[in-house]
Every structure is written in C-alpha cells, then in structure tokens.
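job 3f2a | input accepted
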Amino acid sequence: MTARRPPQERLFPVAGAPVARVRRYVDRQVKAQRATGTLEPVDDGLIGVVLTMADVIDREVVDRDGSAFVILNGCKALAAVLLDLRGGRGADAGGDPDADAALAALVREIRDASRPGP
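job 3f2a | predicted structure (118 res):
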C-alpha cells in the first residue's frame, strides 16, 4: 500500500477576496476628507463616481485578461476626480480644463460598455 501524499499547495493561494487596493485608498481619502470637513453633501455625486471608478480599476487589475492601457487610463481619470474633490483641479487651479470633457467621455464609455452575462 502506498502512502498518500500531502495536498499540494496552490501556486497562487486564494485567501478571500481579491486585493482591492485602489478602492481601499480611495476610501481612506474620502474618510480623511470627511473628518477634516472638506467634503460637503454636494460632493456625494463625485464620491459615487470615484468609488465606482476604483471598483472598475480593481476589477480590471485582477482580471486575467485585464488591460494595462485600461488600468492606466482609469487611474488617470480617477486621479483627476480625486484632485477635484480636494479642490486642486480646474482652470482656476491651473489644471486642464479639458479634463472634465475627458472624464465625461470615460463615464459614458463605462456606462455603455457591454456587461458580461450568463
């Protein structure tokens, strides 16, 4: 009779949910800004946008067929909105006034993208 081998460890261990690094740090920024009083109820729309963008970027990062191009462009757009939440973007702050149009186009692309289905 042969002895049973111990189970082999997985090459890539799965220990719960995938790392949601971008969302974690966006949550930290929002929490810190709420604590300092720099966010107002009128900012809730932008907060929803940045949380959604962070989730989309995190999902793309863990996707086996994820695209570095999509990730980097998502990060660029996310950074612009995060700066807007901090009050450091726009024509008055020396930022790129075309960024709002680019962000609106990105939001339309994400909203209109086909969703995987059963």
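job 3f2a | Residues 57 and 63 are 10 Å apart (CA to CA).
job 3f2a | closed
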